């Protein structure tokens, strides 16, 4: 393989967004719409991720969907009727805004036939990825950061040429909600991972550094996922694939992401994201700031 071929193979231009979950934490709001389409100010949460991925150089985004996720496809598709109506009403700024959504990347959709875990969902897109490294972003991971999480993990991959797990520090009492790493410090924000533990009991976690749902995965991860059988949880989990690869001596690195993690997968996280992003939105920031400063509790 020559240098040009190797560069193309190692360049991260594809992303997988697993969005097949039911969103039960937000019922009844998610009874008829995907949780990823819940609004953060004036955009659905999933659009922020697509914008971040596109700005980081991603050209192809594959959504892993399930039943009830058609709204995501419609949102990222070109809408002739809406476009025509806006043009006729001379709302040209809105025409540009709406068109930009469908032009962010080339979008593909793969249906996960059964809810068999996040690892199974990701592996449903293996045939569209080949042996290239791929960005994985879960739909409820939004960041308030100067450099997007997508760009941060891609840059880390380009340096270490191994799977990268995006990390954040949480309170020790929160570790049981997440996958937790035990790692050796390589630099201020990079860890060579020794162990990956999914949802450990409080007091048994090896650290308070948790996976936030942003990854670069390689063909080795896909190979492991394709070999895995359904475990005790009844699912094929990405965390289990990482654990097995580590047992085999494979290198996996963790990157503590710069910025503030806004977990839109919880009610409070979604409210917090609306406030944080709203305070940066030119249209509403002044009114929102006045409202918050005068709020009587």
Q: What is the terminal separation in angstroms?
A: 65 Å
Number of strands: 13
Number of helices: 12
Radius of gyration: 20 Å
CATH architecture: Alpha-Beta Complex
Structural account:
- It is a single chain.
- The protein is an alpha/beta fold and 297 residues long.
- It has one domain: Spore Coat Polysaccharide Biosynthesis Protein SpsA, Chain A, CATH 3.90.550.10.
- The chain contains twelve helices and 13 strands.
- It has helices at residues 3-10, 45-55, 70-76, 80-88, 92-102, 118-123, 126-129, 149-160, 219-227, 238-247, 267-278, 285-293, and strands at residues 14-18, 39-40, 43-44, 60-65, 106-111, 134-137, 141-144, 164-169, 179-185, 190-198, 209-217, 253-256, 260-263.
- Strand 2 (39-40) and strand 3 form a beta hairpin.
- Helix 4 (80-88) packs antiparallel against helix 5 (92-102) and helix 9 (219-227) crosses helix 10 (238-247).
- The longest helix is centred in the middle third of the chain and has 12 residues, at 149-160.
């Amino acid at each position: 393989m020559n240098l040009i071929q190797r560069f193309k193979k190692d360049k991260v231009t594809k992303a997988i967004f697993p969005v097949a979950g039911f969103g039960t934490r937000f019922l009844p709001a998610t009874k008829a719409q995907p949780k990823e389409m819940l609004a953060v100010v004036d955009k659905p949460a999933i659009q922020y991720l697509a914008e971040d991925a596109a700005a980081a150089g991603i050209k192809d985004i594959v959504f892993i969907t399930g039943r009830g996720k058609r709204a995501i496809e419609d949102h990222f598709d070109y809408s002739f009727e809406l476009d025509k109506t806006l043009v006729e009403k001379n709302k040209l700024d809105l025409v540009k805004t709406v068109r930009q959504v469908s032009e962010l990347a080339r979008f593909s959709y793969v249906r996960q036939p059964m809810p068999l875990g996040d690892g199974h969902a990701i592996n449903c897109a293996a045939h569209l990825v080949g042996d290239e490294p791929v960005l994985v972003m879960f739909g409820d991971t939004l960041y308030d950061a100067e450099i997007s999480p997508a760009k941060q993990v891609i840059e880390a991959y380009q340096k270490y040429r191994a799977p990268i797990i995006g990390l954040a520090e949480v309170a020790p009492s929160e570790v049981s909600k997440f996958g937790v790493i035990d790692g050796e410090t390589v630099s201020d924000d990079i860890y060579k991972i020794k162990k990956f533990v999914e949802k450990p009991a409080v007091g048994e976690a090896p650290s308070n550094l948790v996976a936030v749902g942003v990854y670069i995965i390689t063909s080795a991860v896909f190979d492991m996922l394709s070999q895995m059988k359904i475990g005790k949880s009844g699912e094929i989990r990405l965390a289990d694939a990482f654990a097995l690869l580590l047992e085999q001596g494979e290198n996996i690195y963790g990157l503590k992401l710069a910025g503030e993690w806004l977990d839109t997968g919880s009610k409070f996280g979604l409210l917090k994201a609306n406030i944080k992003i709203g305070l940066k939105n030119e249209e509403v920031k002044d009114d929102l700031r006045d409202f918050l400063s005068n709020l009587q509790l």
